[in-house]
Each structure stands twice: as structure tokens, then as C-alpha cells.
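Input C-alpha cells:
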């Protein structure tokens, strides 16, 4: 998908090819952030699975954050996300209508808040906010790609 993203004309006015590649890499994390439903035979097995999932989640969050920062995608002007949300009936409706800059600002906010509030990013994974943002990012990128073609 990254090869197709590099050709996005509308995004090239704002994002570099390197940043567009990073956006594609972020989208590839979606399966890691979706809830996993597994039946567990015992409480001990369930606790072991939870511990493994937490470790994996923390490692995944660190890798996601590294890619986000390495590709220079942070945008710390949060004013837009604070002004816009009240206009929508729910957070999911708000995310479904976000523009690309708002998606990136919201991801930046989640990443930076996690540095101050331990476990914040994982809580945003559990409540599906991160997955919703990555879904919206994918829609926006594919829409831009389809406009170019």
C-alpha cells in the first residue's frame, strides 16, 4: 500500500513522500489494535494471556510511536480537536467526519498524553478510538488516491 500512497497528489502538497510512507505504516497497525476474542480454558491461562497481551500492546505502542515520530507526523495544535467534537453526537461520529489534520492531531494528543498518563494509549486502544482513527486515516488516504487516479 505504501507504493500507492507515495503517488497521492493532494497529500503531496502537505506531506512529504517520507511522511506519506509513514501514514501507510501506521495504518498497518490496525490488526494489532483490534480486540482479540479468545476462549481461555482456565483462570491461570487467562492471566498469562492478559500479561502477554499487555506486553505485546506496550511493545506495539512503542513501535507505533517510534514510526509516528520518525516520520515527523506529530502536530501539537490541538485547538481544532477541542472545538469540533461538541458538534457531533458521539466521538465515533466525530472521527468518521474528521479531516486528515484532525486525525493526526488526535493521534499526537493520544501519544503525548500517554507520556504523562501511563496507560492512556492502551485505554484508547481498548475503547476503539485508535482503530477508528486508523480506519478514518485509511479512508482519507484511499479517497485521495482515488481522486488522483
Amino acid at each position: 500500500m505504501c507504493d500507492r500512497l507515495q503517488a497521492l497528489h493532494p497529500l503531496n502538497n502537505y506531506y512529504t513522500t517520507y511522511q506519506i510512507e509513514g501514514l501507510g505504516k501506521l495504518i498497518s497497525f490496525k490488526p494489532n489494535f483490534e480486540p482479540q476474542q479468545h476462549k481461555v480454558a482456565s483462570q491461570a491461562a487467562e492471566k498469562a494471556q492478559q500479561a502477554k497481551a499487555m506486553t505485546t500492546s506496550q511493545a506495539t505502542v512503542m513501535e507505533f510511536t517510534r514510526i509516528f515520530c520518525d516520520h515527523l507526523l506529530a502536530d501539537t495544535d490541538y485547538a481544532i480537536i477541542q472545538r469540533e467534537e461538541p458538534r457531533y453526537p458521539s466521538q465515533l461520529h466525530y472521527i468518521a467526519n474528521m479531516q486528515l489534520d484532525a486525525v493526526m492531531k488526535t493521534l499526537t494528543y493520544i501519544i503525548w498524553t500517554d507520556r504523562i498518563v501511563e496507560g492512556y494509549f492502551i485505554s484508547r486502544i481498548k475503547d476503539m478510538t485508535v482503530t477508528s482513527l486508523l480506519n478514518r486515516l485509511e479512508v482519507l488516504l484511499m479517497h485521495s488516491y482515488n481522486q488522483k487516479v
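Residues 22 and 70 are 8 Å apart (CA to CA). DSSP finds ten helices and no strands in the chain.
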